[in-house]
């Protein structure tokens, strides 16, 4: 995370979007909530809000914390900020979390749904899958996928549960040259209908024993969970960009898989 004019910059240029909204208070008119008169940010471990009055106050805004889904509040409505273009609707979805989410959302035939994913992960591991991006329709009905995505984007997270700061809307704008004609506020239903054909399930992997300390530790953590074991392989496939750890036994290296929900 770098700084911009003394303010912490958020991933995906969300800071620019917040600065634009702040600069146009009283003039920016958005669908669903009208003229924006107030911008606020969630306070961690509290249901309270901090009113944003200046660019310096934007340093309290973070889009990286999984404990909340509303990045900001506009006119007291929780809003998730997204950049127009390619992005990830959700990062690093592990099998253990999928099991819990499917149960929480009361999906039917859960074992069969998990088997469909496991088969493609195995095929990808064996080099038999043409692309790591798989249509979500291969794994879920539209109704189930929509419910899953809504929970992950607006309601909560697998590890944190239901957020104390859920989002009601999705605010989308480009990374540069933001103006009142290219910034839009969507309900989830509107967002899903607009982008459902651009969404896919991306199969990703990392390795126990890779040189990147953060990725190595994350892979170790995933592999320790029993419900993740079907997505953990003793055979090493692929090559980490960071290379391999010199002080880690080759025979203990493993390939660990997880999923991303990707928007093109």
What attributes characterize this protein structure?
alpha+beta, 5-stranded antiparallel sheet, 6-stranded mixed sheet, disordered N terminus, 264 residues, 27% helix, 17 strands
How would you sum up this structure, described in words?
This protein has a domain at 3-86 and 152-199. It has 6 helices and 17 strands. The chain has helices spanning 14-23, 95-104, 110-125, 142-155, 188-195, 213-224, and strands at residues 3-4, 7-8, 29-30, 34-35, 39-42, 49-51, 72-74, 77-83, 87-93, 133-134, 156-157, 161-162, 169-173, 184-186, 199-208, 232-233, 254-263. It has a 6-stranded mixed sheet with strand order 6-5-7-8-13-14. Strands 9, 10, 15, 16 and 17 form a 5-stranded antiparallel sheet that branches. A hairpin with a 2-residue loop joins strand 7 and strand 8. The protein is globular, with a radius of gyration of 20 Å.
- Report Rg: 20 Å
Ranges where pLDDT stays below 50 over 5 or more residues in a row are: 1-9
Supply the number of helical segments: 6
Helical residue percent?
25-40%
Strand content: 25-35%
How would you sum up the global shape? globular
N- to C-terminal distance: 24 Å
Order of helices and strands: EEHEEEEEEEHHEHEEEEHEHEE
- Mean pLDDT over all positions: 91
Question: Structural class, judged by helices and strands?
Answer: alpha+beta
Q: Output the strand order for the largest sheet.
A: 6-5-7-8-13-14
Largest sheet report? 6 strands, mixed
Extended strand count: 17
């Amino acid at each position: 995370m770098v700084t911009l004019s003394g303010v912490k910059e958020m991933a995906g240029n969300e800071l620019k979007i917040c600065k634009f909204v702040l600069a146009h208070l009283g003039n920016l008119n958005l669908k669903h909530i009208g003229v924006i008169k107030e911008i606020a940010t969630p306070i961690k471990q509290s249901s309270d809000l901090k009113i944003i009055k200046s660019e310096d106050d934007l340093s309290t805004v973070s889009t990286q914390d999984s404990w909340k889904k509303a990045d900001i509040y506009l006119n007291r409505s929780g809003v998730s900020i997204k950049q127009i273009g390619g992005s990830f609707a959700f990062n690093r979805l592990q099998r253990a979390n999928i099991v819990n989410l499917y149960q929480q959302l009361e999906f039917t035939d859960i074992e069969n749904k998990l088997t469909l994913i496991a088969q493609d992960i195995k095929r990808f591991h064996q080099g038999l899958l043409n692309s790591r991006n798989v249509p979500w329709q291969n794994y879920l009905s539209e109704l189930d996928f929509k419910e899953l995505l809504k929970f992950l984007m607006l309601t909560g997270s697998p590890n944190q549960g239901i957020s104390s700061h859920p989002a009601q809307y999705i605010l989308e704008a480009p990374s540069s040259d933001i103006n009142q004609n290219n910034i839009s506020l969507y309900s989830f239903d509107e967002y899903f209908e607009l982008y459902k054909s651009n969404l896919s399930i991306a199969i990703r992997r990392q390795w126990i024993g890779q040189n990147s300390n953060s990725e190595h530790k994350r892979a170790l953590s995933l592999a320790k969970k029993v419900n993740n074991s079907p997505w953990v392989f003793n055979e090493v496939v692929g090559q980490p960009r960071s290379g391999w750890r010199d002080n880690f036994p080759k025979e203990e290296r493993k390939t660990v898989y997880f999923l991303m929900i990707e928007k093109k």
